[in-house]
Input
Amino acid sequence: MDTVSSVKNESKRSSRQRSVIQFPYYGLADSVVVAQAIHNKAGGYATRDQLAAFLGYKSTANGAFLSRVSSAKLFGLIVEEDGQLRITPLAVRIIMPESPDQTRAALVEAFFSIPLYKAIYDEYSGRNLPEGLGLENALKNRFQVTPKRLYFARKTFFESAETAGFFETRGSKTQLIIPNFKAPLPKTKPLEGKGITDDSGSGNDEPPPPPAKSRDDLQNEYIATLIQMLRDKSKEGEKDKELMETIERLLNLKTA
Output
């Protein structure tokens, strides 16, 4: 085989490489926007066609749209069942929290849902992150991120860590420190089996969906949950005007 053919074949093999460990192509803040669109404009449930329209994409086949949906899934903010995308309880705690601490805890939980981010935190907990190209070298050599994915891995990592408050304590992006909040964090599940691909939701080990429910049943359950939240707040003497308006809007959508 001549040198030119060898280089071409090597290039083809390189272009097909995928990182072993999962990470999103869009950061945490962008993924929260996806969940907010489903919540605010569709009552917590939407088809892919609807979500693409909400986010301003002309087609569900758009690469950026597919990456945003995949990213929101990886962060644990949305799931897809029976042709419907729905927001998760984790997303509700971010979008409609009962307290600021609940939001902060939920953002940290979403950050740790990403296998790469959890691995970086575990590796550098209590010490500074590598500087400059040092982090990219670590992503490539230690965490097995392919060279063509390094830019996205580094970019979304820093964006997501900042959104989740990991840089607040020191006021710089030198070390990952869990931000201060009173709400307890749930126990995280082992990451084994989740590091399959880096650019799709197909590698996410989600449990099998429960028996199919109609869209109306799912929306009714969602509205009932919000009403219960409003009742609990009322018992404590707290009035949540925004929550009341959201419930009214969802009820109007159902009767329209």
Q: What stands out?
A: Residues 1-16, 188-213 have pLDDT under 50 and may be disordered. The CA atoms of residues 132 and 174 lie 11 Å apart. Residues 215-235 form the longest helix (21 residues).
